[in-house]
Amino acid sequence: MKTIYEVIVSPIITEKATAAKEHFNEVSFVVDKRANKKEIKDAIEKIFKVKVMDVKTVNMPGKVKRVRLFQGLRSGYKKALVRLKQGNKIEFFQGV
Questions:
Q1: Of the four, 25, 44, 68, 78, which is 20 to 30 A from 86 by CA?
Q2: Model-level pTM?
Q3: What are phi and psi of 39, to 5 degrees?
Q4: What is the C-alpha separation between 1 and 68, in angstroms, rounded?
């Protein structure tokens, strides 16, 4: 069994994720590849003390990158899109 801090790896802070946070109250996280939706929901609710309405997961494949003659592959990751109940929110940058 994974602890709640092993399930959530990091938040995703991009323009698209910020727009989803403002319009749909949906926050994105990089999560452990072996984590399921139930574990993700429990971890978010315990860490941030919010109520989760829905969890969607996506396995993001690694991208192929080239440096001159050599070609490599970035590692893939699992992304979780977490929709919060109305009135709940998660702030990553408070007071900035």
A1: 78
A2: 0.88
A3: -65, -40
A4: 43
Residues whose CB is less than 8 angstroms from the CB of residue 62 and which lie 6 or more positions away in sequence, other chains included: 73, 74, 75, 76
Q: How far is residue 33's CA from residue 18's CA, in Å, rounded to a whole number?
A: 23
- Residue pLDDT, tens place only, 54-93: 999 999 999 999 999 999 999 999 999 999 999 999 988 7
Closest CA to 7 of 45, 50, 36, 48: 36
What residue type is assigned to position 38 of the chain?
Answer: K
Contact predicate 27/85, CB 8 Å: no
CA angle 48, 92, 45 (to 5 degrees): 15
Q: What is the pLDDT of residues 9-40, one digit of tens each?
A: 999 999 999 999 999 999 999 999 999 999 99
Bridge pairing between strands 64-67 and 8-11? unpaired
